[in-house]
Amino acid sequence: MNKTKSISVNACRALLALTFIFSGFVKAIDPLGSQYKIAEYLEAVQLSAYVPDWAQLMLAVGLSAVEFTLGVLLLLAIRRRLASKVTLAFMAVMTAVTLWLTVSDPIQDCGCFGDAIRLTNTQTFLKNVVLLSASIVLTRWPLYQVRFISKTNQWIAFYFTIAFILTASLLSLYHLPIFDFRPYHIGQNIKKGMEIPKGAKQTVYKTTFICEKNGVTKEFTEDNYPYDDSTWVFKDTHQEILEQGYEPPIHDFSITDQQTGDDLTDSILTRDGYTFLLIAPVLERADDSNFGEIDAVYEYAKENGYGFYGLTASTDKAVKHWRDITGAEYPFYTTDGTTLKTVIRSNPGLVLLYKGTIINKWSHNDLPQQDELNAPLSLIETGREPEDRTWTKIVLIIVCYVFPLAFLIAADRIWSWTRWVRKREEWLRQKEDWLKQKEQSNRLYQLLKRKRQMRKKIVAGNWKMNETLQEGVALAKEINESLKAEKPNCDVVICTPFIHLASVAQVLDSSLVGLGAENCADKEKGAYTGEVSAAMVKSTGAQYVILGHSERRQYYGETAEILKEKVRLALANGLKVIFCCGETLEEREAEKQNEVVKAELDGSVFNLTAEEWKSIILAYEPIWAIGTGKTATSDQAQEMLAYIRSIVAEKYGKEVAEETSILYGGSCKASNAPELFAKPDIDGGLIGGASLKAADFKGIIDAWKK
Ligand code: PEP
């Protein structure tokens, strides 16, 4: 299906491209001809008075350049979407115009292909319907057009095409059209061009005469014309073709002497020897800058006995004005303006006839120079028909436009291909690296996963200064019972005030619930009234101690140094330390959290040996989240815990870091625990308020089951 679509789109694109290139080119190389056609259209819609000649000429040059360039864009598939849309719009307008031509017939030839190919209005309309359909197909699937040039270099082709077609237009305008498709080309005998071959079909006309009598107008045909009734006064006549017969290539050439009314066509076209015709369809607008050269040719013609006639469609007044400004002495005769415009695309232009055959033509910019006219025409180049240079011109166009374009396309293809090869190599290399990395990271991931699975998951309660001894024992019992009923998926620890430790130790199943103190002294033993040493804690049956809690740092002035000593003693007495760290709200707002946490760890625990480190559990507790109901988001917590793990890795190596349990603490509840614990670096929680109710605490412990 896609193949069919691709074939159809590319066939439509080729049809449109070649048509546009051809029609744009033949019009571009005949800018004056295109201007005359535009003038005809403007006249048909009665707008010619509003559009000056120069604007018509610019429109002619511009339109043909657009058409040609659009054709090249389609051919090379440059800006496929835009070019397709513009083509569709162009064809929609053209089809509408030619429908109007077909229906109303205001202009005989649409001018689509300049003078190169002439179509009837109906043929043009049908041609446009086909092209419109093709442009609909193109617009529907523009990206099916196969590119010939990469996007990077297509602008070069675009600007080069515009430069080429405008140059071709301007050269044709300054000189004469590069190719002459008109019946008055060099080598054409005008009289012969007017001959109708014997037996050729005659055109049948219907002539209508309009006469008036007593204010009444009536139409007559040749058959009922009132020849005998002189009271009918002839007013007007018009002719209509009933049946088109053979029309010779030249059918409208005549020369009349306006003064005498004599038809001079025959005498001039059969004149022996050479005749110069100065053709100026509209003498009022003829370029008079080269009149000196014209006069010189006239003098030369006079000296050598050659004819020299001016032909124009303008009035006597215009002729007189021309004589006044140029001093012209040659006679002027009248010929139809359209015919003169067809004879030569220059106003004025010079045509040389030899016995009625066109020998040469010159734009007023290229008139024969005096030094060339140094002998009779029969002896010099000017009097000879120039050799047909059609092929030379075609080769020149190929060399100047087609070759560079083809070279550009070839270079672009090679460049694209080498780029593609390089990219492919690069891609293959990247793919290989990626596969290696993937394999590595897979291995790393598996390792981390294993480590994480190996790492202890812990939920530790911190009762703080809550519960009497009896209440505490009852709570411990309740927790113990609920965990007995349903085994936890993590280590569970409850940290109680000192006075509870010994009693609570009695009611806990140590295989289910660990016991810890909330503090211990920074002294080993001795006269420290009110203090409880690490050894004493250990002696109650406790296995853990919380150290570095923010409340102790804040209310009891525990410095990094004091905590360092407490940690040392706790470890020395066989306790596991849950070491807390965390920043205040101001510190977080100042984005100093990492710095603060690192300083706390540096100051109290990073002095430990790797062996001692095995008994350390870290707890990150942002102070602004403790007991405030404000939890750090799971992302904030994960980010900090990952950071803590990274600095542990810097200190003790990746492996130790991967084995270190790091907890989050701060308004952790059964409702937010699952999300927090789902983060890869959060290994559990240190729970304050929510550890004082067995059900709440159990809810958090159960988060590890989800
Ligand atoms: C704590 O004090 O360690 C703590 C995390 O408290 P809370 O859970 O009440 O915020």
From TrEMBL:
Recorded catalytic reaction(s): these are:
D-glyceraldehyde 3-phosphate = dihydroxyacetone phosphate
Per the record, the major location class is cytoplasm
Residues at the active site: 549, 621
Q: Which residues form the Methylamine utilisation protein MauE domain?
A: 7-138
Q: Which GO terms describe its biological process?
A: gluconeogenesis; glyceraldehyde-3-phosphate biosynthetic process; glycerol catabolic process; glycolytic process; methylamine metabolic process
Q: Which Pfam families does the UniProt entry name for this protein?
A: MauE, TIM
For the keyword ATP-binding, the answer is no
- Amino-acid positions noted as binding substrate in the UniProt annotation, renumbered to this chain: 462-464, 627, 667, 688-689
- Segments spanning the bilayer are 57-78, 85-104, 124-143, 155-176
Coiled-coil residue spans: 431-486
Q: Which UniProt keywords apply?
A: Coiled coil, Cytoplasm, Gluconeogenesis, Glycolysis, Isomerase, Membrane, Transmembrane, Transmembrane helix
Q: What is a single molecular function from GO for this protein? A: triose-phosphate isomerase activity
Membrane-topology descriptor = Multi-pass membrane protein
EC numbers for this chain: 5.3.1.1
Does the keyword Cytoplasm feature in the UniProt annotation?
A: yes
One Gene Ontology cellular component: cytosol
Subcellular location per UniProt equals:
Cytoplasm; Membrane
Q: In which pathway does it act?
A: Carbohydrate biosynthesis; gluconeogenesis; Carbohydrate degradation; glycolysis; D-glyceraldehyde 3-phosphate from glycerone phosphate: step 1/1
Family under the similarity heading: Belongs to the triosephosphate isomerase family.
Subunit composition and interactions: Homodimer.
Q: What is known about what this protein does?
A: Involved in the gluconeogenesis. Catalyzes stereospecifically the conversion of dihydroxyacetone phosphate (DHAP) to D-glyceraldehyde-3-phosphate (G3P).
Listed NCBIfam families: BT_3928_fam, tim
What is the designated name of this protein? Triosephosphate isomerase
Name the source organism. Answer: Prevotella multiformis DSM 16608
